[in-house]
Amino acid sequence: MTVFEELERRGLLAQLTDREEIEELINAGKATFYIGFDPTADSLHVGHFMALCLMKRLQMAGNKPIVLLGGGTGMIGDPSGKTDMRKMLTPETIAHNIECFKKQMSRFIDFSDNKAVAVNNADWLMNLNYIELLREVGAQFSVNRMLTAECYKQRMERGLTFLEFNYMIMQSYDFYRLFQDYGCNMQFGGDDQWSNMLGGTELIRRKLGKDAYAMTITLLLNSEGKKMGKTEKGAVWLDPEKTSPYEFFQYWRNVADADVIKCLKMLTFVPIEQIEEMEQNLEGAGFNQAKELLAHSLTELVHGKEEADKALEAARAVFGGGGNSANMPSTELTADKLTDGEINILDLLVECGLVPTKSEGRRNVQQGGISVNNEKITDPKANIKIEGEVIIKKGKKIFHKVTLA
User: What is the pTM for the complete model shown?
Assistant: First the structure.
């Protein structure tokens, strides 16, 4: 089975500019390809995960990845899929975020011996002469055609700024520069980037008379059509300080039955034959086994085998499968948080980070979604005595241990 055939069997392929040419280059290990990452936060998140896995797969097949860090485009912000304008970041924040990205990416991509390179588009975008850009690049783009692009439709309804309108030109120019400077012949990205990527291939054709290729990968959506990687707390981060390995594990352990096979195919390196065999016999306890495999595989990829094993053991302990509960997410309360050894349930939920506000905690309690040491709490005024280990259960799947420091 070729690498292209595997990508297809895993359901990763979305749109391609030239299927035969892309297939031939990838299978021969002759693709020098790039994926762009705008540094909008100080950690990568699950939304970046599939792109990183794709880069790893293609690098293992002999192709060369270029990680493009958007130090320049990050100053503008991608309007794709957004109803509101992105928050403007300072150059200092962008530089810090880029360094954080680089460290995390090295877990997935081998940068040794020039097997991959990381570049920052600020190196060329920040020094562009505006008149020169208008003459050399702007003249190659049709405004009428740009306005039909999917990435602008949502923003058009609320008001698209000229700043954001330039994003497609910036991304296209990136591909043009990478083609010239690094021999980059392909761009990959999420399916919501298709219009921006076509702009790059067209600019290369118009300016250089040469062919370059683009391929989008399927967006990771759940069975309800919503993007995966979000929780009540926000994004699922790859940084263990923002999303602990246990929380990361639990996110994947708790995916819907309808999504587990798709996630195994698209995100893990579990052999496709093994996944397809599981798919044929998936019922009852098989769903739980598949979810454990998914959660452990992804946690090992991001945080290492030791953390994945700890998370698995903790999860089994919580759900009655035996094991050590020491790895359960926990909070140590100091004595000054207590009155006569007790704390109000709403204060406790906020202290543990289980809810962002007391009002949300009150709703959870009144709706019967909170238990403490297996006893359901329905009174928002209830006080909880903190002695030994106190186990809070939120909903059916979230557990948290509380001890006194």
Answer: 0.75
